[in-house]
Amino acid sequence: MMSWRKYTIKFALTFCVLGGLFACSSNDSEILEPEEVYTPTPKPLDVPPILERLLPPPSVPVDNPQTVEGIALGKKLFFDPILSGDGTQSCASCHKPDNGFTDNNRFSTGIDGIEGTRNSMPIFNLAWNRDNKFFWDGRATSLEIQALEPVTNPVEMHNSWENAISSLQNHPQYPTLYQEAFGTKTITKELTAKAIAQFERTLISANSPFDKYLLGEGTLTEQELRGFQIFMDESRGDCFHCHGNDNSPLWTDNKFHNNGLDAIITDKGLGNVTGDPNHDGLFKSPSLRNLAYTAPYMHDGRFETLDEVINHYSEGLVYSRTIDPLMKAVSRGGVQLSPSEKADLKAFLLSLSDPSFIANPDFQNIN
Amino acid sequence: MKQITILFIFILTIVGCSNNDEPETEIVGCTDPTALNYNPAANTDDGSCTYEKNITISFTQNWDGNEISAADLNTTEFVNEAGNLLTIARLRYLISRIALKKDDGSTINFEEYNLVDLSNNDSRTLTLSTPVTTGEYTGISFIYGFSEEDNISGEYRDLNDADWNWPTMLGGGYHFLQLDGTFNDSNGNIQPYNFHNGTARVSDGIFEQNFIAFDFDVDFTISDNATIEINMNISEWFKNPLTWDLNDRSTDLMMNYDAQKDMQRNGKSVFSVGEILQ
User: How many angstroms separate the CA of residue A103 from the nearest CA in chain B?
Assistant: First the structure.
């Protein structure tokens, strides 16, 4: 029984291969080149110990498993200006490794010299995003969908996918790389986004001084520890309701909040996406990891320094109808931290930055 | 082959017997082969068959009987016992250690805990992984929050991921409740409230558990897959026995021992068992 089945499979395979050969040989314009069956090598995400210990496993879509070849292709695409309309900008132009995969501009400038209206988001730990809502306003419902947008956005890479695919298809290397990653030389925007998403999911950061402290592998200064107490104190910093804690090491809740920036909402944020006026002015909480590299801050990059950010929550809160009730001290402008508390809090926040992340050779441009 | 012959002979024998006029010995029991307690020897069904069925818990919320859904968030105004006009922006709470009591005195304990988030419909139903047997039941119990032994800091990855932790300086573990919103204060100004509940901090390093164990006597029959409703009457948090005026206590309540214990007192009338549908 078993051998008969095996025989059937072998026969079917032979038939397919022969069929393929015949199909190819009937085409005069192409060199006879049977499509090699290429199985990409699985490469599950390497989960750092602190995330392994405290969080559910990373979420990777079943139709886009991590592979060595997919990640390598995604990395090449990420750093390659070929995706932009005039071949001058890559994803990495606004998402630089040195800046925690954001840039240091308030707004990034696209290929036509036009500025966007929101601050480029840092990229790390994106496989731990249980709600799968990407961008400041959550409008992309998967990382694969997110990766499609900047290519065609007129104030970003301002290309058409048709044109981008044509450039990739005519490139000396890409068709082979797609075949190795996805088993086909026929390039599509979906496969391109899948490869980029695979690379982005490898951008994992969990090796900050605070992580080492939690793992018992390092110590913090007295000031950093005092800052952490302020962060966790509901009557002082009260940062933890939106920005994680020592047992929730993403340092974001990945939810959307109005954090009291403006009395009059000009950018509706989540409200533009859901159409619910109660969501006007809500933006995704960014992670507090890697703040040392990701200035300026907020969805519109309005704060150049961490001091400005802390001052905002301390005495700069402004009421608007959709302000989150967690901004409870808005009637007195904020939680009113003393100068020394602010310094302590800042020291703690900086202990969440991970130098090994921005220096990781796997994440650098090798094109 | 031998077995088939034997079976054949056996069948012949049975057929032979049924042709026999002698009265058959009545053996009572469960005659349904799909039942848990099928008795192959029984020839008269006595209604004792039991089956495995699945239980789903439906978590519902109301304000003194008016059902509350995600659509009420930020929009619907409520008046609490103290007369505070309020809205709800966020409601999340934790339920654990659900158990059903059978009429034979046994208890079925379920391992699941559930973080209910009013804004997330999926979180409002919980299908329990352990099936139960059909029959008569006499009670439902569950814990609001986590018991002291379950309330371990960092232990539950999904709750960590939901940023549901309770600060270590306040005893650690997890939040039991987050009820946030706004109210009109005595001067008519809109003010936020953060009605958060968890372990109570007595003093530095001294903490007091703050969960509530509910144990309801309810007689019901499980005959099919069933949905059991656990209901939260939100107004009870502000009403019974203590009238809670948000003008007095609205924010910074987590480290306030009295506020935490008063929440626990008022919480005892918050939950009830609602409909059991099957």
Answer: 27
